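Category: protein sequence paired with discrete backbone structure
Discipline: computational structural biology
Format: plain text, a pair of labelled lines
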Amino acid sequence: MSILPCLDASVASPVREMGDAAVSLESTLYQLALHDCQVDLQAPAQSVADALDHNPLLPGIVVRREAEFVGVISRRRFRELTSRRYGLEIFLTRSVEVLYQFASTEVLVLPATALVVSAAQMALQRSPSLLYEPIVVEVAPQDYRLLDTHHLLVAHSQIHVLAMQQLQEQTQAQMIQTEKMASLGQMVAGVAHEILNPVNFICGNIKHLANYSQDLMDLVELYEAKAGQPEAIATFKEDIEFEFLAQDLPRLLSSVSLGAERLRKIVNSLRNFSHMDESQLRPTDLHECIESTLLILSSRLKKEGEIEVIRQYDDLPLVPCYSGQLSQVFMNLLSNAIDALSEKHALIPTNGARTGWRPHLQITTRLQSRLSGPHDPHPKMWVAVSIADNGSGIPEEIQTRIFDTFFTTKAVGKGTGLGLAISHQIVTQKHRGHLNFWSRSTQDGALIDQTGTTFEILLPLA
């Protein structure tokens, strides 16, 4: 068989034009300049020389035995052999098989779907003698093309530049988001302080108002007992529904007191949540942080299908932490759980009546003993907080990316991709803890009533 047609860059545009081809972090070898030049073992070796002379950019020739892939004769190895004394006479007068016996080297074969970044790493891990040997790319079963290592490294450098630009943009966006959160925290703290003053005034005086009202009612009863009930007084009492007023006034004052107390709790929760600029760890009641967050989210819990909150709290000591930052972690995790429950609630008709599914959140706290590291022989006490939902779950294929900055599965405008990334940073870097998770989704084969996600926060006590 004679040499097959040599088609330069028959699969994609040359790598030097990749700037116009929207190179991305996910670019594959299929997008690079792949050379299609193949020769049979029984062909004359002169055909290899002709092909390399015809196309100066050709990195080598794919060698086949009929339809079976055998290996590669690279331009570098061909020039090394033929540049020797009598090299042209020795090799070019014989078949490709003879030339291949001397020119063959170890080849790196990769699928066309391989990422450029991964391919470049594997190419650079080869021995120095093979560093610039072309890479064999399998674009289809038994269909092989050649990729010049130089082109691969150029593409890798372009992707590196793009990655640095994206990282810089992400860092800047995260700094802006952090600054916005700090400003928001200061604003919330100021507003909460202004609200708390009149609320405290109401709460402090409502008890006196209740006592004064009761004294006035007792005075009216005493007048009736001493002076009787003249007709004018009886008529007036009937007009104002005095008996109902006497019964309803204590209940009215009680509801005002409850409302004022609830408002005070909400304001205190906002104040705790706004403590984002704490400079040192402080002993904190984690249950109070969780309850404050649940109070802020209470309207969403009711809105999204009456989500049941199951609490399983152990007796915990005060935990040294940055309470405001930890409250943000609880807020992010609980908000994501509510979103997952809302998404599943929309998929199940009649609120799960056909499956028996009901949305719920389970929050568990406990003390546990564990080693801080592989070289620490003495276990230490940790506090574990787990937040579990029976929502739609996280598909396994994206679980490794959920802590990546700006990665989100939510629609545009509904998610920033910062919540879990910031939460992971707060737990692991600020508190020297761990943030773990487990999840099952229908995409991974789980039944719809078996899906859900659990996040676990581990914080050291010392």
Notes: DSSP finds twelve helices and 14 strands in the chain.
